[in-house]
Each structure stands twice: as structure tokens, then as C-alpha cells.
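Try this one yourself first.
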């Protein structure tokens, strides 16, 4: 049985109304985003089963997966860069935890998106 993302391509294009990711890369992007959500939720979704979560949790997780897939697609070059910062002719850029980017377990995510994911109650290190 293969891993299924928490948001399907149909959900991404229909309910979420996503258009950023091309059809031939969409399933892969949603799977990657779902795997990153699993890391940030300590695999609690896998452990409980997505269908056993509340409707509220499911809705948030599906939305977060779509937004994360968009974020990872838009910022693939920066996320995959081994450099944490660079400077050219007095202009510099830095990637990592900052005021608007959260990084944990090798996953980069917008902070407001991580805050939304935390509303599910699945991100707490102390929760079981």
C-alpha cells in the first residue's frame, strides 16, 4: 500500500483552488508536504489514522498540506540550498529560522502556517 497524501490533487485543484503546481508534479508535491506534516506532528496522524481525526483537524491538515506544497514549490531553490546565507555586492539573504519562517526537523514552513497546524493539537511535544 503506497503512501497517500492528506490532500488529493482533486482537493488541491477543487476545494483549495490551487493553480501554482503543474499537474505532472502535483501528487509528488502533496506527498512531500504530507510527509513534512507527519514530521512536524510526530507521526500522530499516521498513528491515529487520518479518518479518525476530527473534521476540524482534517480540514486544517488538508489546507496546510496544500499551502505547504505551494510554499515548497515556490521556494524550492532556497529550501534545497546548502547555504544558510549569502551576500553579493552588499545585498544579502539568509535562510533558516527568522521572523516569518519556522524550521524544525529539516522542514521549512511559514510561521503562520505552522501556527495553523498547531491548532490541531498534534504538534505538541508533550502530547500523546
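Now uncover the answer:
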Amino acid at each position: 500500500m503506497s503512501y497517500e497524501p492528506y490532500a488529493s490533487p482533486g482537493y488541491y485543484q477543487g476545494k483549495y483552488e490551487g493553480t501554482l503546481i503543474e499537474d505532472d508534479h502535483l501528487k509528488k508535491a502533496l506527498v512531500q508536504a504530507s510527509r513534512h506534516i507527519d514530521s512536524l506532528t510526530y507521526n500522530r496522524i499516521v498513528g491515529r489514522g487520518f479518518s479518525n481525526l476530527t473534521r476540524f483537524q482534517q480540514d486544517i491538515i488538508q489546507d496546510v498540506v496544500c499551502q505547504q506544497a505551494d510554499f515548497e514549490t515556490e521556494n524550492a531553490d532556497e529550501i534545497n540550498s546548502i547555504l544558510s546565507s549569502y551576500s553579493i555586492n552588499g545585498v544579502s539573504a539568509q535562510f533558516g529560522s527568522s521572523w516569518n519562517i519556522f524550521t524544525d526537523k529539516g522542514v521549512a514552513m511559514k510561521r503562520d502556517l505552522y501556527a495553523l497546524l498547531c491548532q490541531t493539537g498534534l504538534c505538541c511535544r508533550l502530547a500523546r
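Discussion: Helices lie at 9-13, 23-40, 44-48, 55-74, 76-80, 111-118. The first strand starts at residue 85 and ends at 88.
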